[in-house]
Design brief:
Length: about 180
């Protein structure tokens, strides 16, 4: 018979970051990589709450993703940023399943090979860019019209170091793509 620990071990072989939460956002499993990040002193708490592990922005992102997956979404993106700092935001995906003892949220993430080869300051800049892109995507998603999304842009409030020039192509239903 396959145990839950066997399943966690299998998943750990596929993901750099793995966290399992219950319906009350209590951590049921945290892989060794995230344990090192969240508990640098080595004193791992027994079933800590998500709010103790991540910063405020990350908590909002993960709560929103958890709500979406519980409502039927699959692989909803979020950002994991540890409360104590020490690591830039990690792009993660959140999944959900019902079990005999209640629902479980599965939070997974991967390190890109290019990120492993970058200096710390470069990784931080890439993480800021990703966080900015997630913010823009979220802001566009919740806006009722294009006009609303352009008026309520979160970008002026953010202070990220963005490139001077860049190209971005995206499509919106009912609007043609123009270069």
């Amino acid at each position: 018979m396959i145990t839950l620990e066997d399943l966690y071990s299998l998943l750990e072989g596929s993901f750099d970051y793995l966290m399992v939460l219950d319906e009350n956002r209590r951590v049921k499993y945290l892989n060794s990589t995230l344990k090192d990040v969240c508990f640098p002193d080595g004193e791992v708490q027994d079933e800590p709450g998500l709010d103790k592990l991540v910063d405020g922005e990350s908590l909002r992102s993960l709560k929103k993703a958890m709500k979406k997956v519980k409502g039927g979404g699959r692989g909803v993106p979020g950002v994991f940023s540890p409360a104590g700092g020490g690591l830039p935001g990690i792009p993660v995906r959140v999944g959900y399943t019902e079990g005999d003892e209640g629902g479980l949220f599965l939070v997974t993430g991967m390190q890109a090979d290019t990120l492993r080869q970058m200096d710390d300051w470069e990784r931080e800049e890439r993480a800021k860019e990703l966080a900015c892109l997630y913010s823009v995507a979220e802001w566009i998603e919740v806006s009722e019209t294009i006009h609303d999304s352009s008026r309520s842009s979160p970008l002026p409030r953010r202070r990220y170091a963005l490139p001077r020039r860049g190209r971005c192509l995206f499509s919106l239903p009912g609007y043609p793509i123009r270069h």
